Amino acid sequence: MYQYTEFDKQFVRARAAQHRDQLERFQAGQLSGDEFKPLRLQNGWYVQRYAPMLRVAVPYGEISAPQLHVLARIAREFDTPDAALFAEAQATQDKLAGLAPKLTTNYGHFTTRQNVQFNWIPLSQSADVLDLLASVNLHGIQTSGNCIRNTTTDELAGVAVDEVVDPRPYAELIRQWSTLHPEFAFLPRKFKIAITGATEDRAAIGWHDVGLQMVKNAAGEVGFKVLVGGGMGRTPVVGTQIREFLPWNQIMNYLEAVIRVYNRWGRRDNLYKARIKILVKAEGQRYFDEVETEYQEILEKDGGLHTIPQAEFDRVSASFAAPALNLPAGHADTTEWVAKAEADVSIEAAKTPAFARWMTQNVKPHQNPALRAVSLSFKRIGQAPGDATADQLDAAAALVSQYSAGEARVTHTQNLVLPWVRLDQLHALWLEAKALGLAQPNIGLLTDMIACPGGDYCALANARSLPLAAAITERYQDLDELDDLGHIDFHISGCINSCGHHHSGHIGILGVDKDGKEWYQVTLGGSDGKDLSGTTVAGKVVGPSFSSFEVPDVIEAILTTYKELRLPVQGRHEYFIETLHRVGQDPFKAAANAARQPAADALTA
Amino acid sequence: MKIITAQEHQSLASPAVITLANDVDPRSLDLNGVTRIDLQFPKFTDGRAYSQAFLLRRRLGFAGELRATGDVLIDQLVQMERTGFDVAVLREGVDASAAQRQFDRFAGFYQGSAVGTPPHFAEAL
């Protein structure tokens, strides 16, 4: 992980002190609510449906065990609403139709942008919480607001077997460059950057305002393929390539050009047309040309101030060296050790089918043959997707310390990855994770769904996400059935802002509000750009929206249709998305629409 | 950075003073004989004038006064200075007493500024 310098640490502490100053002026009436709002947002403090929400930045998803322990402490000591507020919130939620899990407190929530959220911290404690976060170099800087947000990356960065270039040093350099950038704090709208260094895109770069893919050119030089103008929301647009190859050391200068031109021309008259995707769509080549001119002028007239020196790259890069392996003593020959450890794992897997299933589903290969990357699943019955209680955060931190060199990754699918697990410790890790309820072998399967907090917590939501997530999780408990259904990206958003990434789901659910009731659109065939999902594209709506009552049956009808239509391929079944690509949407649409229950609305009314 | 009150701020009808709307490209201006340019923040959340200031100061080498006007609040002063403003007119009713400590808080920033401060990495190496 990146090692914070004294400058970096002091910077985070100064930012916390700045928030305290602003909070005190707000409390003293020297700063109005409207004036305070954009300031607190740029430190991650929202005011949500019932209470403030804090979004803690986890830069490119990398988090340490001590940081996880501090998040646990925040969950335990601060994520506690006033009893009357909580009772009122629950009473309000109880008035909504349909069965739903109760509201919960004292937990952290892993988000689709690799951050961590808390839902109940009183604003009056916000400065204390930021101080506590700063003690482990954490903060909420630019996790909201119309500024450059936390850069996201591949959860397997630095360990993936298909990696061309490790993107983490570049992500860190972008973090530093974008942090409190003086010119870009009040853009027309939020601005999200994602970066991948692997051949497979696991960072959904096409869905970002700027998507960066690290490549090597014919001469072996490192650079970026640059996409611009992707985004979800009301108008889903996939990013367009603006640069085939940008030399690695020019990334800050180039981003400056991209964002300066956007700052100038991006629309400010309509919130829904303010993202860069709308500008790129409207102007196309004209935007590209202006960025190119601006970039050249930054280099020639401004002196290319932010060209990254090799020495700075080397300094940052050094932080990302792989941790020491510490193989047991007496094993000079790693190859022999690996062969033995793999054999031992196989023997254990043959004895214990549940361990074998976990190995297949939750454990990924690693650049170092002696190691594996392991997913802890935060998708299980009784808890919302991506939620972790204080105790679970502490327990996860302990696993991270013991089994993964003290480092984990928050994934955009709302789980944790332990990227440095030794082969001979997999079984011990599995036993401990299982005891903690974090070893569901469902990574990539239907119940490993993405869901936003929705109408239970979020002020923007049109409908709740969590009751649907719970209903699907409960219906699909049979591991053999889940396994048989295979890889499915199932994504739920409670509103068109698309935090639950419904556009990129093979099956997507979007909450909509009709006449004050919760309804859900179902989309099919979306892709986040990973190999299995195919070319990045937004899913297509199957028809008029469904009631919450109908949705689980609609999902089941779609999946039944898949099972009827799928063909064998390469010794396995086609995945859902493969069948969909082959046969098209129509049979699935028909099945979904046939699962409508017109009487349901009358029954629940 | 010089901070002045709305009363102290006067729009001068002089060819040496330009008031620039925030959607104008400053590169289109003739800066000959210009000593002061008033840039505008119609709302403090509209950040276009930061880019204008940067271009004037860094790109065009404008050496006169760059004045921030409009919805100018305490918490934007530091970034105004970093993008090239040297005078700010606080919005009517804003108490200036909280301003100075904002300038004292951060020991430095990551980015280079429009006014000659190099990026942090250049200082650190």
Can you characterise this structure?
The complex is a heterodimer of chains A (605) and B (125). Chain A is of the alpha+beta class and 605 residues long. Chain A folds into 4 domains: 6-134, no CATH class; 152-316, Sulfite Reductase Hemoprotein, domain 1; 338-435, Sulfite Reductase Hemoprotein, domain 2 (Alpha-Beta Complex); 450-604, Sulfite Reductase Hemoprotein, domain 1. Helix content of chain A is 38%, strand content 16%. In chain A, a hairpin with a 6-residue loop joins strand 11 and strand 12. In chain A, helix 1 runs antiparallel to helix 2. Chain B has a single domain, classed as TIM Barrel, CATH 3.20.20. Chain B is built from 4 helices and 5 strands, in the order βββαβαβαα. A 5-stranded parallel beta sheet of chain B has the order 1-5-4-3-2, covered by helices on one side. In chain B, helix 2 links the parallel strand 4 and strand 5. Chain B is globular. The two termini of chain B are 28 Å apart. The chains are: A alpha+beta (605), B alpha/beta (125). The interface between A and B is large, with 41 and 41 residues.
Binned strand content of chain A: 15-25%
How are helices and strands ordered from N to C of chain B? Answer: EEEHEHEHH
CATH topology of the largest domain in chain A: Sulfite Reductase Hemoprotein, domain 1
Q: Please identify the structural class of chain A as seen in this structure.
A: alpha+beta
Oligomeric composition of the shown chains: heterodimer
* Number of β-strand runs of chain A: 23
Query: What is the CA-CA span between the terminal residues of chain A?
Result: 54 Å
Which overall shape of chain A is indicated by the principal axes computed on the Cα atoms? globular
- Strands of chain B, count: 5
Structural class of chain B: alpha/beta
CATH domain class name of chain B = Alpha Beta
Binned, the helix content of chain A reads 25-40%
- Number of helical elements of chain A: 20
Shape of chain B: globular
Q: Tell me the CATH superfamily of the largest domain in chain A.
A: Sulfite Reductase Hemoprotein, domain 1
Can you tell me the CATH class of the largest domain in chain A?
Answer: Alpha Beta
Mean pLDDT of chain B: 95
User: In whole angstroms, how far apart are the ends of chain B?
Assistant: 28 Å
Number of domains of chain B: 1
